[in-house]
């Protein structure tokens, strides 16, 4: 099934892309990848999708019933990319937290000593002058830019290049005077005033941040707020795809793995439907999270049993966190979640 995840990785993020999975019954585990109004990949059995072509019209994310059969529809928006211009203390702090929340992070600076420090964060690093570095970054609806350079001269260079690119967000750090100079100069150069007015500056939520780490928290909090307001959660973050396709630190840990996906959430569960986690064949290496705590522990226990079993049929795990059981198990939130577990070879 790795060809499916290669297809997902290559999707055009500007298209209306959905992955549909049957979550229970005799068709459990059957999948279809849809772009616009056409199938671009289907399971080998594809029995369910042959019987129900109307699934092509279903665009709303969530669990639906087609002829009584539960199917999970999720939008595929592409990997979230965070481009940070400036490898100073604030830039590196933002990179650390951005990586923690699943962004594909790139840090740009023209000072080798600073980019060497950025490499320690284990993110993509470009040591080059800002114009040349940004010229190699296309930008798209999933690209988030943060400008935290050492002065308004470099702020202007970066914003001039970024304003020409498609983007999800542009954040600019600096004093009101410094920002005003940059904006006025770029408007005089002919940069679209509408794009400039959409720049988030001063960057970050107003939480009284002072230290580099506090500023980084405020910036990432603002990005999370905007991403979630616009329902821009990616169905397959880079970390999940890397694990499914045996890349980077997940190489040589065995070909079999278990993909766990929350397909339904009711009440106050820690993660939304669509959250994913992968358990690799060694039985302890994981990628992603479905919320931690008892929910994740139950899912991992079942996933380890699935790895050892010969049967590769998907299973649906129901976890109840309602008040009485939550108190008994030490859970801090109520509600229920349904988690689909699938063995991937």
Q: Count of helices?
A: 12
Taken from the alpha-carbon principal axes, the silhouette is: elongated
Strand order of the largest sheet: 3-2-1-5-4
Order of helices and strands: HEEEHEEEHEHEHEHEHHHHEEEHEHE
Q: Low-confidence runs (pLDDT<50, min 5 residues)?
A: none
Number of strands: 15
Q: So, CATH architecture of the largest domain?
A: 3-Layer(aba) Sandwich
* End-to-end distance: 7 Å
Tell me the count of domains. Answer: 3
Please give the radius of gyration in angstroms. 22 Å
Q: Describe the biggest sheet?
A: 5 strands, antiparallel
Strand content: 15-25%
Q: Could you state the CATH homologous superfamily of the largest domain?
A: NAD(P)-binding Rossmann-like Domain
Percent of residues in helical segments?
A: 25-40%
Which structural class matches the secondary elements? Answer: alpha/beta
- The top level CATH class name of the largest domain: Alpha Beta
Q: Look at the structure and give the mean pLDDT.
A: 89
């Amino acid at each position: 099934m790795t060809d499916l995840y290669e297809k997902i990785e290559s999707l055009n993020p500007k298209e209306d892309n959905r992955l549909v999975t049957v979550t229970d019954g005799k068709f459990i585990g059957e999948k279809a990848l849809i772009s616009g109004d056409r199938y671009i990949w289907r399971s080998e059995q594809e029995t369910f999708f042959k019987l129900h072509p109307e699934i092509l019209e279903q665009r709303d994310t969530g669990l639906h019933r087609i002829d009584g059969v539960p199917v999970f529809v999720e939008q595929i928006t592409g990997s979230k990319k965070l481009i940070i211009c400036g490898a100073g203390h604030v830039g590196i702090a933002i990179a650390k937290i951005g990586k923690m929340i699943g962004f594909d992070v790139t840090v740009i600076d023209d000072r080798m000593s600073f980019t060497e420090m950025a490499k320690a964060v284990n993110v993509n690093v470009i040591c080059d002058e800002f114009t040349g570095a940004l010229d190699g970054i296309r930008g798209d609806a999933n690209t988030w830019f943060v400008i935290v350079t050492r002065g308004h001269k470099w702020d202007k260079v970066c914003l001039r290049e970024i304003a020409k690119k498609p983007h999800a967000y542009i954040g600019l750090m600096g004093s009101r005077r410094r920002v005003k100079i940059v904006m006025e100069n770029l408007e005089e150069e002919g940069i679209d005033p509408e794009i400039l007015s959409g720049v988030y500056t001063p960057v970050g939520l107003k939480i009284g941040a002072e230290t580099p780490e506090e500023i980084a928290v405020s910036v990432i909090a603002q990005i999370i707020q905007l991403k979630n307001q616009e329902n821009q959660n990616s169905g397959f973050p880079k970390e999940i795809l890397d694990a499914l396709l045996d890349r980077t630190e997940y190489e040589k840990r065995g070909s079999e793995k278990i993909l766990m996906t929350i397909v339904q959430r009711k009440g106050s569960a820690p993660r939304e439907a669509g959250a994913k986690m992968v358990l690799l064949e060694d039985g302890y290496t994981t990628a992603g999270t479905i919320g931690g705590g008892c929910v994740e522990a139950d899912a991992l226990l079942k996933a380890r049993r699935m790895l050892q079993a010969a049967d590769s049929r998907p299973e649906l795990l129901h976890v109840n966190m309602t008040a009485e059981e939550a108190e008994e198990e030490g859970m801090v939130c109520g509600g229920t979640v349904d988690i689909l577990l699938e063995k991937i070879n």
